[in-house]
Amino acid sequence: MSKKRKISLSEEELVLALRHREKIAVEALYDMYSASLFGVISRIINDTAVAEDVLQDTFVKIWNSFTTYSAEKGRLFTWMVNIARNLAIDKIRSKDFKNQGKNQELENNVTFIDERRNTVYKPELLGIKELVETLKPEQKSILDLVYFKGYTHVEAADELGVPLGTIKTRLRMAIVQLRKHFN
Amino acid sequence: MEEIKAYIESGILELYVLGDVTAQERAEVEAMALKHPAIKAELDEIEKALELYAEANAVEPADNQRDRVLNSLLTNLSDDRTFPSRATKAEDNIVPFESPKQTNFYKYAFAACLALLIVSIIALVNVYSNLKQSNTELAVLQSQNQHFSNRVSVMDHELSVFRDPSFKLLKLNGTAKSPSSALTVAWSPSKKKVMIDMANTNMPVNDKDHQYQLWALVGGKPVDLGVFDADTTSKDMKEMKEIASADAFAVTLEKRGGSPTPSLDQMMVLGKF
Q: pLDDT (tens digit, 9 = 90+) per residue, B119-169?
């Protein structure tokens, strides 16, 4: 199970191999992106088993609709993360998941609500420590709401009680900070 | 240049990468990226930054998920390679729902019902005519049956005359006027019954205006015993008027209906005991 022979290809090679529907492309795709995608999915969906189902659905959808991806319009990961985020949001808005959520609410009321409120600031999920220092808290909260919680910027403005224009500016500044940081 | 800078700073490119734009905005961004390499480069930077941010926030899925996901993708890989266009041509496999068939079914069902109805009517008419014919035949048979039973009872009656010992048979012979004539009379003095055997008569056929009249001679006086017609078809025993005693019987030819007294010159047959 814990074979650590991860396959890595350049993005161009990967896209070409995926077009030719090669087995190695599937493995490389999973090894290169499953953790990043699962990071997004598991922040939207708290239930690990459900998040794992959505991860599988995400790869199935990527594999089956790969012909609709066009490299000129953007990076492969951007296309894939949008698929993952949309599937995850569809899942938590679906009827059966809402019913599950109610049960959870009755059993783990306090932790569930705490999780909801504090996800944005959860230190153990933040990964690299310096990132916390790189981003101002108001930049990070808006970025995480949109990127990791699947909010639209309009919903984020509502949630945070901030005007739309401010939201857009903060979002942009957050990403500018990220770019500086990674460069 | 100012315009491009303003566009970049509006924040629309970030929203585009995050998938948080309308279809119209998306088309606009893509058109701008094609036109202006600066915008394309900016988009690329944003994408890279977010990709790295996701990597920094990555959560490693459980080890068993790798096999699970890969198996679900690779199960049909060999099929996919044999038919590479399978995924895109999936809609070609949709079999249209054949709704017109439904209406055809009712059409045929109606025609079948109609044909059945016609056949039934023909059969009914046939059976009815057969029944009518049978009824007619039955009526004929019944009347024949009635006829025969009548005939049997008449014969039985006649037979009883010959069986009855009280009956005397007297053969009346022809007179000088009609020597060939003959008639048989059966008479039972105890029962006062007189009968003539039409089967054994040999009398000339009388015309419409005349009838034969049977007389009994009692002490020399004639007593009327009734009239009869002589024809070749009648074969019955004819019962005449009653009489208890007689010396002789005679038949005269009289006017139709009979006469109170016999015309002796018209005497045809005569028989004495």
A: 999 999 999 999 999 999 999 999 999 999 998 988 888 788 778 888 888
Residues of B with CB below 8 A from A129's CB?
A: none
Give the helix/strand (H/E) hosting B216. Answer: strand B210-218
Taking the C-alpha atoms of residue B22 and residue B122, their distance in angstroms, rounded to an integer, is: 75
Question: Domains in chain A, ordered, with CATH?
Answer: 7-107 (1.10.1740.10), 112-183 (1.10.10.10)
Residues 249-268 of B with CB under 8 A from A: none
Neighbours of B122 (CB within 10 A): 10
Taking the CA atoms of residue A146, residue A148, residue A149 and residue A153 in that order, the dihedral angle to the nearest 10 degrees is 0
Q: Are A58 and B61 in contact (CB under 8 A)?
A: no
Token look-up 């957050």 returns: A174
> Is the ipTM here above 0.95?
no
Cβ <8 Å between A39 and B57: yes
Between B101 and A12, name the one with better pLDDT.
A12
Please state, in angstroms and rounded to a whole number, the distance separating the CA atoms of residues B44 and A18.
Answer: 21
Q: What is chain B's percent helix, strand, coil content, to nearest 5?
A: 50, 20, 30
Distance CA A156, CA A141 (A): 9
Which domain range does residue B228 map to? 168-272
Strands (E), chain A: none
Domain tally, chain B: 3
Q: Distances from the Cα of B163 to the Cαs of B20, B155, B186, B236, in angstroms?
A: 134, 12, 12, 16
Q: Considering CB atoms only, which of A60, A131, A179 is closest to B72?
A: A60
Q: Which of B57, B61, B88 sits opposite A55 (nearest CB)?
A: B61
pTM of the model: 0.51
Say whether B59 and A67 touch across the interface (CB within 8 A).
no
Which tens digit of pLDDT belongs to each residue from B187-237? 888 888 888 887 777 788 888 888 888 888 888 888 888 888 887 666 777
Q: Is residue B88 one of the residues assigned to a domain?
A: no
Look at B18 and A125 and tell me if their CB atoms are within 8 Å: no
